[in-house]
Design goal:
This protein is of the alpha+beta class. It is 30% helix and 27% strand. The chain has seven helices and 13 strands.
């Protein structure tokens, strides 16, 4: 499930090319009509520093594979994104798993020097609500070639691709040192309504405090200790979400 956010999984995802898709544009506004009404999105350690400034970072477990992955939280229930308001995303950083839409990473087999290899290529979901021929950012120049918008999207997907690979090693390290624990978050709003969030995991801070110096050094050497502290610090943003929710209900 985690990889579905950035890989070719749907029938409407096709390899992007300047002939068939020369007139395509991408709408960059934000709103529920563009699929932004999600209450969390995939994230990974490379972007934790930026994500933790705005969103709580937690972990989930894929019920099909049993693999853990990290997510940035936007709301308290399905289809609730408290950062959406009048066509704007009210935060200075948008997680790349959201920002990359409608682009995806695909793969194709090529023969190079007689050897078959798998090459990463850019795909696009042509049925995505952001796709238009009338408005938005063009993908190709009038006389051929990529626009800077498309080049930026390709760079973004490259960061995501490598970020997800690194995330797998990060999760393995968390499991090795038994640093993930399940938790339930009970939220009570000003109007008395309550929300209970289940199925999430967080860093076990007690376990972290008792790790041997050699274990901490191993995490630090891999760059994962900083990511762990970023995830812990991000939990302060639960209060930000609560304030946004209360303000929306009272407004």
């Amino acid at each position: 499930m985690a990889t579905q956010a950035v890989t070719q999984e749907q029938n409407n995802n096709v390899m992007l090319n300047s002939v068939e898709h020369k007139d395509l544009k991408v709408i960059t506004d934000h709103g529920a009509q563009y699929g932004d009404n999600v209450w969390y999105a995939l994230t990974f350690p490379v972007e934790f520093r930026s994500v933790q400034a705005h969103y709580p970072i937690f972990f989930q477990k894929d019920p099909q594979t049993g693999r853990f992955f990290s997510v940035a939280l936007f709301g308290f229930k399905d289809r609730e994104n408290l950062f959406l308001d009048k066509g704007q995303w009210q935060a200075s950083y948008i997680p790349l798993a959201i920002k990359r839409q409608p682009f995806l990473i695909g793969s194709q087999k090529i023969i190079e020097d007689g050897v078959q290899k798998v090459q990463q290529v850019l795909h696009i979901d042509i049925s995505h609500p952001r796709i238009s021929t009338q408005q938005g950012e063009p993908l190709f120049l009038e006389f051929g070639g990529n626009t800077s918008f498309l080049d930026t999207a390709a760079d973004m997907l490259d960061v995501i691709h490598h970020g997800l690979e690194d995330s797998e090693h990060f999760i393995d390290a968390l499991l090795k040192f038994e640093l993930l624990e399940s938790f339930t978050l009970d939220v009570e709003l000003n109007n008395g309504n309550k929300h209970q969030m289940i199925g999430f995991y967080t860093i076990n801070e007690d376990k972290l405090k008792t790790l041997a110096s050699a274990s901490l050094a191993e995490l630090h050497d891999k760059g994962y200790l900083q990511a762990i502290y970023m995830a812990i610090a991000s939990q302060a943003n639960i209060r930000t979400l609560l304030n946004k929710k209360n303000n929306r209900l009272e407004g």
